[in-house]
Amino acid sequence: MTAASTPAATGTSVLADYLIGLGDDALVLSHRLAEWVTRAPQLEEDIALANISLDLLGQARTLLSYAGEVAGDGRDEDDLAYLRSEREFRNVQIVEIPNGDFAVTIARQLIFSAYQFELYTALLSSADETLAALAAKAVKEVDYHRDHASQWTLRLGDGTEQSHARMQAALEATWPYVEELFDPTDIADQLAALPRIAVDPATLRPAWSDYLRPVLVEATLVEPQPNRRTRGGRRGLHTEALGHMLAEMQSLHRSHPGVTW
Amino acid sequence: MTGPAQRGTGEPVSEPNVPTAGSKGWPLWEVFVRARRGLSHQHVGSLHAPDAAMALRNARDVYTRRGEGVSIWVVPAAAITASSPDEKDPFFDPALDKAYRHPTFYDVPEGVSHL
Lengths: 261, 115
Known about the structure:
The complex is a heterodimer.
Chain A: H1 14-34, H2 43-71, H3 77-82, H4 102-123, H5 129-157, H6 161-174, H7 178-181, H8 188-193, H9 205-218, H10 240-255
Chain B: E1 28-34, E2 42-48, H1 52-63, E3 71-76, H2 88-96
Antiparallel strand pairs in B: 1-2, 1-3
C-alpha cells in the first residue's frame, strides 16, 4: 500500500473516500443489473447482463475492501456495502436510476461504461499500485461492457420505429445524469490531496465524447440537450430510488447479522 | 474491441445468406469453441441471436464463462446440413467391416503426432 494523505483525526482518509466513491458506483450498478436476472427479454441477454453485473461486483469488492483497509476503522467490504445508509453512499446518481425498459438500461450502460473505460485507462498510471492493478483488470471488463451497450444502441436506434423511439426517449431520460460524471467539484479535496493517484473526471470527457458521438450518429439518434442536470451523488445526495434499492439489497444482511452460507 | 463506427467482429460487409432477426424471432446459431490448448473448435451448444455480431458476443457470454476458450465460431444453424439418424446404417455400417481400409497394418513412426 503506498503512502496516501491520511488525516489521523477521524480515522478515515481522503483515499478511502475516493475509493468508496468508485466502489459505490460499481456496487449500485451491479445491483441494478442483477435486477434484470429472470426478467431480461431473451435468455442470452439475461446472461449477458448478469455477467456485466458480476464484473462490476468484482470491481466493487476490490475497491471497497481496499477502502476499508485504508480507512483503518475495521470495516470490511460487507460492512461498507450493507451497513451504510443512503446518505453515506457516494455513487454518482446515474447508476442508481431504476432500470426502466431495456432501452433505458442500455442507455445508462453505454454512458457509464464508456466513462468507466476512460476512468480505468487513466488509473492505469495511478501511483497507487492496488488501484493501478485493479484498473488493469477492470479496463478489459468495461471495454466489453461498452461494446455490448453500443451494439444494442446501434440495433435499437437504427431498428424499428418503436425501438428507435424508445432508445431516443431513453437517452433523453439519462442524459441529465451525464454532467455529474465529469464534474470534479464535489471531489475537489480528494483530487487536491491525491495528485498522482486519483483522476480528475473532467479530463475524461473528451475521449468519452469521441467514443459516444459516432455511436449515436450511426444509430440515427440525436444527442440530447437536457435543460436540467443532477449533482450531489458524491456528497451523499441521491434520488429517492437509491433508498428503495438499498432497502432490498441490505435487508438480508441486516436481518441476519454475521450470517454465513 | 473495435472502434465505435465499426460493427465489431463477426459482421461481414454483405450478408446475403445469413439469417437476420425478423418478426418470427431470433435465428438459431451453433457455437464452436477452441480451448486454449486445443487444436480444433469443438461444438459446445447453441443459442439465439439477432445477427452474427451479437451471436459472437452471446457465445462469449454463455459458453466461455469459465475460461473455456480462446476462439469462437458461430454458424447459423440453418447453414448446417446434418446426416439423418434414419440413414445411419447405410451411411456408416459398410465402413466398419472393410478391414483393408483401416490404417492398422503398419507401425506409426515415432514423432508423428495427431495421425
